[in-house]
Amino acid sequence: MANYIKVFLIAVSLAMDALSVSIASGTKSSRIKLVDALKVGATFGLFQAGMPVIGWSIGETFRDKVDSYTGLIAFVLLSVIGLKMIYDAVKEEDEEVTSSISFKLLIGMGIATSIDALIVGTTLVLIKVPLFVSVLIIGIVTFVLSILGYSFGVKLGTAFGKRIEIAGGLLLIFIGITFLF
Predict the structure, then answer these.
(1) Domain-located, residue 39
(2) Is the model's pLDDT at 74 over the cut of 80?
(3) Average pLDDT over all residues of the chain
(4) Cβ neighbours of residue 2 closer than 8 Å, sequence gap 6 or more
(5) Do the domain assignments include residue 40?
(6) Quick check: is 41 in a domain?
(7) At CA 50, angle to CA 27 and CA 113, rounded to 5?
(8) What single string gives the DSSP state of each residue in 92-140?
(9) What's this model's pTM, rounded to 2 decimal places?
């Protein structure tokens, strides 16, 4: 059960980038458009679920070679990703978000927000939860949070964008620390 909780927490952490971008996308709309919210959620959910599969394949290939270092590897990978998320949230550059949610824009945002999921996928081998279940949890959590983020963005503006990314980064670092113990 503890491993499923870890996967859920990883899913929430990974979804923070997508949530932040969803909020920013929503701020450019004058009203909640269900079609746009579903497009954003589906795109981010699919990318966040697909990238860990690639990372998992990489991790599975090298499992025997790194088995005795698994906790340390997971800690380092998750901490680096968490620190990068925090860095990206506090750097001064403003992200440019367009008011039109085109297919091309969605694909670009989906890839950009799921790169960390590729790396986290390498650690899924260590958690010992079936890959399909892990990917399903990650995809559903991202889908739901992205829809909510888009809707909140429409209503609340960008007030939470950077704070959400920082919280996600801190959560990934915390999960990484749990792998040491």
Answers:
(1) no
(2) no
(3) 80
(4) none
(5) no
(6) no
(7) 30
(8) SPPPP--SS--HHHHHHHHHHHHHHHHHHHHHHHHHTS-HHHHHHHHHH
(9) 0.72
